[in-house]
Amino acid sequence: MYHTNVTSDAASVRTLSDLDNKELRGLLEIFAGNVLVHYGMWFTESVHKLGLAQTLGLESKAFQLYAPLAAKKLAPHLKALVEQSPAVSSSPKDDAELIALIQDLAKTWVASDGVWFQAVEAHAGMHVAKEINDRCWANFAALEATKILAFLGLEQGCGLSGLQRALEFRTYSVINAHTTEFLEDGSLLLTFQECRVQNSRRRKKMQDYPCKSAGMIEYSNFAAFIDSRITTECVYCPPDALAADEYCSWRFAMS
Fold first, then answer.
1. Would you give the end-to-end CA distance of the chain in angstroms?
2. pLDDT-based confidence at residue 38 (cuts at 50, 70, 90)
3. Among 12, 153, 250, 254, which is most buried by a count of CB atoms within 10 Å?
4. Number of H helices, E strands in the chain
């Protein structure tokens, strides 16, 4: 289980393990949609930048890499999910399986993002890949914020407390340990203690991927769709020089 340590307002902040069976199934549907839409965003933005003919070839390469990864990750879940009778009362085991499926869906989303980036980078270079990546993240963050607000029953303009609750159900949040805490000045600090992307690169003795520019777009857009008064600041993120146990940290404040 990937968990979040919340050091402030803990009573109102829920994580995956706090959801009931119906809520987990609802979140599963959201995550499945997120994976599909994000893949489509890469295709659409690549068409805008590179043209349809080139993008069709890139999609073929990306899908050839993505399909077996997704199948391997999701296949163990599907048989049990399909065979489970809706007439049977849910059990803690059912909930655990749903949580595992949600997390594995999130992992396939990371894989999808990675194979698209690699395909575009190999074809058009790092600069173009980052440009397309940043556009995808800007749109995806807005999509996530909108869906999470509805899932939690929150309205736009719900402030930093609403943002803290919403951050727990971002696709990336459910597969990477992180903390949120309110600082003395009233701002909200989000800090990741792990990152699947950077961990993979570090195991291969590669430099961290410089994701600060994408992160600023992503977190600024997400926070702004939660509440337009929220400002976003990067505390640290690659390519900043980081300790071995550091990944990224973001500070949110009310303007």
1. 35
2. very high
3. 250
4. 7, 5
User: What tokens were used for 187?
Assistant: 């701002």
Interatomic CA distance for residues 132 and 179, integer angstroms: 29
Beta-carbon count within 10 A of 78 CB: 11
**Residue pointed to by tokens 């119906």:** 22
Q: Cis peptide leading into 92, omega within 30 of 0? A: no
Q: How large is the angle between the packed helices 21-50 and 52-83, nearest 10 degrees?
A: 170
pLDDT band at 13 (very low <50, low <70, confident <90, very high): confident
Name the token pair of 231.
């400002």
pTM of the model: 0.87
* Rounded distance between C-alpha atoms, residue 31 and residue 24, angstroms: 10
pLDDT for 88-116, tens place per residue? 445 556 889 899 999 999 999 999 999 99
| pLDDT tens for each residue of 150-182 | 999 999 999 999 999 999 999 999 999 999 999
- Average pLDDT value for the chain: 90
Position 3 scores a pLDDT of 43
Specify the long-range contacts of residues 210-216, CB closer than 8 Å, at least 24 apart: 210/238, 210/239, 211/237, 211/238, 211/248, 212/237, 212/238, 212/239, 212/240, 212/248, 213/130, 213/134, 214/130, 214/133, 214/134, 214/137, 215/248, 215/250
The CB-side HSE value for 47 (13 A sphere, CA atoms) comes to: 8
- State how far the Cα of 139 lies from the Cα of 145, in Å rounded to an integer: 10
3-state secondary structure of 251: strand
C-alpha torsion 233→239→245→248, nearest 10: 20
> How many Cα atoms occupy the beta-carbon half-sphere of 121 within 13 Å?
9
